[in-house]
């Protein structure tokens, strides 16, 4: 939740600051900034939260679990990007304020992302 709030907020600021650029550039740069912020925070928090757990696990179990996590998140990222870019671009094209367009498309894409990751993690019985 922390990652989402910070990433969405900074993406909205970036979208507004980039409002003078073409919509496709605004969309692309805004999403890149969101990715950098989200994964920077997520990686740090995930590491701190699981450091003791992974120290106690055997290396082959760690590899198996990390592979399942990366696969799930990778699939989720395809879903996220496949929704986020077109929705943000569309909202900018129809004249919605850039910060609002960014927030709305972030909410839509993140909801789809979370749903797809949850389904995939349950199917692979990772968690």
Can you give a write-up of this model?
The chain is mostly helical and 127 residues long. The protein contains 4 helices and no strands. It has helices at residues 2-17, 23-56, 59-93, 98-123. The protein is elongated, with a radius of gyration of 17 Å. The mean pLDDT is 90.
Q: CA-to-CA gap between the ends? A: 18 Å
Shape: elongated
The helix count comes to 4
Spell the H/E element sequence.
HHHH
Task: Summarize the model shown.
The protein is mostly helical and 127 residues long.
Keywords:
about 130 residues, elongated, mainly alpha
Summarize the SSE layout with pairings.
Blueprint: H1 2-17, H2 23-56, H3 59-93, H4 98-123
Helix pairs in contact: 1-2, 1-4, 2-3, 3-4
């Amino acid at each position: 939740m922390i990652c989402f709030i910070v990433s969405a907020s900074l993406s909205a600021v970036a979208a507004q600051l980039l409002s003078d650029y073409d919509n496709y550039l605004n969309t692309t740069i805004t999403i890149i900034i969101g990715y950098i912020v989200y994964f920077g925070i997520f990686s740090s928090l995930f590491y701190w939260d699981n450091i003791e757990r992974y120290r106690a696990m055997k290396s082959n179990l760690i590899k198996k679990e990390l592979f399942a996590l990366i696969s799930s998140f990778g699939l989720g990222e395809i879903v996220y990007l496949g929704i986020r870019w077109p929705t943000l671009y569309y909202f900018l094209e129809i004249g919605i304020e850039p910060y609002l367009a960014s927030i709305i498309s972030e909410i839509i894409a993140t909801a789809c992302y979370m749903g797809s990751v949850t389904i995939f993690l349950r199917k692979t019985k990772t968690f």
